[in-house]
Amino acid sequence: MWNTVGTISVVLGVVGIALPLLPTTPFLLLASACFFRGSPAFHQWLQSHPKLGPIITDWEQDRCVTKTVKRRGAMLIVASFSISIFVVKPLWLKLMLLTVFVVTFVFFLRIPVKPPVAEHHENH
Question: Domain extents for the chain?
Answer without folding.
Answer: 2-62, 67-117
